[in-house]
């Protein structure tokens, strides 16, 4: 999840934003050069992930309680999947380069095709078929990186073809720190934002665990639904980044802001619809995972309290993507960090000071989402036009 979110919405959003702004400003040569820089960043990001995760996995897995056959299976999968981080990074960063031109269809089609292939070939590699030997958990890893690698080659070929609005050239283009900085200025905060989002779930799950097994599992089920809201927001967010970035680069500042707010309302409506649905009919979601009466009761309570607030979470996520297009993400990343602190702080107060139990904990999560929406909206209002900054 960390690799995927970093390459897609973190660093990937920065690539889309930089290319969109360059095209909006009429700087086609800069946009072309940025594609090569994105490719180099994908290689560097993959090397970093593979190195850190392969070295760190033994410590992390054992810390999580892995031992015996389970630990061996984890290594079988992770050694393949982490070694192939290049396929995940390439697919997402090259896809982001294409999205920066306004072409959303091709990257979406390639990614959907890669995921379908992943689902189809993984069982064959895990369990074996005909002359194919059973690879066990390692087969799941190969089933992931092979289709993603093939998808990366498709995008690479497209960016090298005359059909692409930007061209990936290996000759006549020199690597420039200024262009790397153009991407990293948005990408590094994006990486931090991804880490905060994942850390939030880990930290809150740990706090929920102090209220008992049922509360921990009930919260975990709700958090799993929130993980589904993230790619939903990302789907709209990729369009928001490209449209806002292009108009910002073309100095159509008012239009860029209107797109940002329209995108925020669209994502908020989609997330709120899902949240209200599961709040009214929690068994639709909780029932997928368990029939345990107590866990169902606690999980339903979580969805009834937090579900109606999902619209605010949608606002925050959408405005984060908008600020990627503006090349001004520091405040929206800070807003996500404040959400994490508000969630954890309010949860601890509710549990240990006010003795409100699971209900207080769930209300604390809802408060964090409301704070996130308010702070990202404030961050949007503080974004200044380049001309105003220069004066």
Q: How would you characterize this protein structure?
A:
- Helices cover 83% and strands 0% of the residues.
- It has 391 residues and is mainly α.
- The model has no long low-confidence stretch (mean pLDDT 87).
- The protein has helices spanning 2-24, 28-63, 68-83, 85-99, 105-127, 137-160, 177-209, 213-249, 253-280, 283-286, 293-306, 310-326, 330-353, 357-382, 386-390.
* Structural class by secondary-structure content: mainly alpha
**What oligomeric state is this?**
single chain
Helix content: over 70%
Poorly predicted runs? none
Q: How far from one another are the termini?
A: 42 Å
Strand content is under 5%
SSE sequence, one letter per element: HHHHHHHHHHHHHHH
The tally of strands reads 0
* Total helical segments: 15
Tell me the major beta sheet.
none
Shape: globular
Alpha carbon gyration radius = 22 Å
User: How confident overall, as mean pLDDT?
Assistant: 87
Could you give a short description of this structure?
This protein is mostly helical. 83% of the residues lie in helices and 0% in strands. It is globular and about 65 Å long.
List the topology elements:
Layout: H1 2-24, H2 28-63, H3 68-83, H4 85-99, H5 105-127, H6 137-160, H7 177-209, H8 213-249, H9 253-280, H10 283-286, H11 293-306, H12 310-326, H13 330-353, H14 357-382, H15 386-390
Helix pairs in contact: 1-2, 1-4, 1-7, 1-8, 1-12, 2-3, 2-4, 3-6, 4-5, 4-6, 5-6, 7-8, 7-13, 8-9, 8-11, 8-12, 9-11, 9-12, 11-14, 12-13, 12-14, 13-14
